Amino acid sequence: MKSILHDWDDDACVRLLVRCREAMNEGGRVVVVDIVIGPTSRPGPAALLDLNMLVKHPGREHDLADFDRIFASAGLRRARTTALNGPYHAIEAVPV
């Protein structure tokens, strides 16, 4: 799913990911393509996008620790993270 989780609050993100986990076949994974906020010492453009999300939507941008927490609540764990163009990353999660 691309640019989906940042639109929703954490509870809604967990519900979406739980449904993905329930639909997975054995060996399946979910791939989230989204913006990842960097460290506060180097926030980059993701921080400005996060500010935009705070004004317009119930969601927000996440850092990797946020994704780990949301995945864990959905019975998933982050297996791999791949940097893409700009602030986007592909984050693969597998069932725990």
List how many beta strands DSSP finds.
3
Strand order of the largest sheet: 1-3-2
Q: By CATH's scheme, which homologous superfamily applies?
A: Vaccinia Virus protein VP39
What is the CATH C-level name? Alpha Beta
- pLDDT average, as an integer? 86
How much strand content do the residues show? Answer: 15-25%
Low-confidence stretches: none
Termini separation: 19 Å
Number of helices: 3
Q: Give the helix proportion (percent range).
A: 25-40%
Based on helices, strands and strand pairing, what is the structural class? alpha+beta
Main sheet overview? 3 strands, antiparallel
Shape: globular
Order of helices and strands: HEHHEE
Q: What's the number of structural domains?
A: 1
Tell me the radius of gyration. 13 Å
**CATH architecture annotation:** 3-Layer(aba) Sandwich
CATH topology: Rossmann fold
Brief summary:
With 96 residues, the chain is α+β, with helices and mostly antiparallel strands. 39% of the residues lie in helices and 23% in strands. The longest helix has 14 residues, at 10-23.
